[in-house]
Amino acid sequence: MKKSLKMAKEVQMSIKMEPELREQFMAAAITLHRPAAQIVRDLMRSFIACQELPNADTIAAIHAVESGEYTTHAGTADLYLKLGI
Questions:
Q1: Contact status, residue 32 vs residue 42, Cβ threshold 8 Å
Q2: Quick one: which of 33, 48, 36, 59 has its CA closest to 3?
Q3: 16 versus 63: which is more confidently predicted?
Q4: How confident is the model at residue 5, as a pLDDT?
Q5: CA 27 to CA 20: how far, in whole Å?
Q6: Any alpha helices (H) in 1-85, and if so which ranges?
Q7: Residue 75 has pLDDT above 70, yes or no
Q8: Mind listing the pLDDT tens digit for each residue in 25-56?
Q9: How far is the C-alpha of 76 from the C-alpha of 85, rounded, in Å?
Q10: Residues 28, 31, 32, 37: is their CA dihedral positive or negative?
Q11: Is the pLDDT of residue 73 over 70?
Q12: Residue pair 63/56 in contact by the 8 Å Cβ criterion
């Protein structure tokens, strides 16, 4: 999805949360001088991006292993042995 500078906001979402969570979130948003709604939209976009399978981080890790940039270990004992632990 191509992100435009101004996207039409046509729906609302209502959620329930603990009052303390809301107070902490609003205080953090004020500290950053950002609207709380924008932060929530950014968090939602980030969450969606992390759900893509495979995501960019997974693909990068696969390529690193395949190219020998990263080595895998047979198990925890093998890793500890190689690290000298």
A1: no
A2: 48
A3: 16
A4: 62
A5: 11
A6: 19-32, 36-51, 56-66, 76-83
A7: yes
A8: 999 999 999 999 999 999 999 998 878 777 78
A9: 11
A10: positive
A11: no
A12: no
The residue written with tokens 């991006």 in the block is 49
Counting every residue, how long is the chain?
85
Residue 36 CB contacts under 8 Å (≥ 6 apart), including other chains: 25, 26, 29
- For the chain, the domains span 35-83
Find out whether the peptide bond into 35 is cis, omega within 30 degrees of 0. Answer: no
80 vs 20: CA distance, rounded Å: 43
Structure tokens at 18: 């603990």
Q: Are 58 and 52 in contact (CB under 8 A)?
A: no
The tens digit of pLDDT for each residue in 8-32 reads 888 999 999 999 999 999 999 999 9
Output the six-digit token pair for 11: 């729906």
| Tokens representing residue 73 in the block | 């270990």
d(CA 9, CA 66): 43
